[in-house]
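To: structure subgroup
Subject: Chain for Friday's discussion

All,

I'm putting the inputs and outputs inline so they're searchable in the archive.
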Amino acid sequence: MDALLKPKGLSSSKWRVLMILHEHGRLSMSDIAIHAVAKLSTITKIVYKMQEAGLVTTSLSPEDRRVTEVSLTHEGEENLVIARELTHRLVEKAFRGLSSDEIVVMNRCLSKILDNLSF
């Protein structure tokens, strides 16, 4: 996936953050880390690189000034559209020949494995 995204200035990590923010809206860095199943320090580095590139904005939470919240910019939304087009082709290729039922079963199994590994 990184090979597809790199020419557009993105990575799978940045794509993941874009997808999470698109789906959930404004989130704290901690919430992004939870959704991305990544360390907070890793997400913080990614978000600040994305901010420098104009893909996201950060601001202090009005409720708790210790919390940094992240939002997509218009440019971030545009980059997400491009990334989704690129990754859609990869997903189609990866799942070629699998039925919808097989994909559902696989996702359930992977979800159970993730639950087993959660602390």
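Points worth raising on Friday:
The helical segments are 2-5, 12-24, 29-36, 40-52, 74-94, 100-117.
The chain has a mean pLDDT of 93.

D.
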